[in-house]
Amino acid sequence: MKRSIFVNLATIILLSLGSFGLVIGGFLINKATSKTKQLQPITDTSKYQEIRNHKWADLQQIQHFPRQIPPESQVLEMAYSPGITPGSSSLQIRLKEPQAKIKNLLKQYKKISQHQYQGGNTNNHSNQPNGVPTTFFYTSDSETETFPNSYEILVLKAEDKSQPGAKWHHGNSHGVAIDVASSEIVYWAEKW
Q1: Whole-Å CA distances, 147 to 10, 13, 71
Q2: Which of 11, 15, 89, 102 has its C-alpha lying 20 to 30 A from 53's C-alpha?
Q3: Rounded CA gap, 179 and 151, in Å?
Q4: String of DSSP letters for 28-44
Q5: In a 10 Å sphere around its CB, with 0-12 CB exposed, 13-18 middle and 19+ buried, how is residue 154 labelled?
Q6: Distance CA 120, CA 153 (A)
């Protein structure tokens, strides 16, 4: 009788350890494969026209982007991510422009912007009273994805496409961020 209790107890312990091992193994395999599934942003600026003119589904959201890079412009960075889930994506290109052109662009976009922010990122902007989601500074030279206060973020359009009660769960926004001092403009569009 004592032997059968010992055998039963050993069987239960071994089965428990085996089950635990399967769960942990499954978790680790899932974690490893999900890392390889994450999309890396496309930063090759030679692909800009293809992305702008053919890969972005809603051309209305990027009509403010230049059709092609103007010859007097210097491309500093680009980031395009088609998104992990269907319907989500982001496009951002940062250009250095002549000072006079930057001042004109600032004046032009300020007139048609729906919202204006000084520095920050989408989390800062959407959490302000009557705030809307914008973007992160994906094309920054630093690790931080927050625009410095020298940038004016001008939201040209923001649409909340969420179900009632889930504000900004789905939507899109697009606009520009302009730093007059460094003579830079960041064109951006986001869908989520």
Answers
A1: 60, 55, 26
A2: 102
A3: 4
A4: HHHHHHHHHHSPPPB--
A5: buried
A6: 8
Q: What is the C-alpha separation between 142 and 146, in angstroms, rounded?
A: 9
Q: Are strands 115-120 and 184-191 parallel, antiparallel or unpaired?
A: unpaired
Q: How far apart are CA 109 and CA 122, in angstroms?
A: 19
DSSP for residue 1: -
Q: How far apart are CA 178 and CA 188, in angstroms?
A: 11
Q: Global pTM?
A: 0.77
Kindly state the tokens that stand for 19.
Answer: 């089950």
Task: Note the pLDDT tens digit of each residue in 166-185.
Answer: 888 889 999 999 999 999 99
Nearest of 61, 51, 52, 59 to residue 161 by alpha carbon: 61
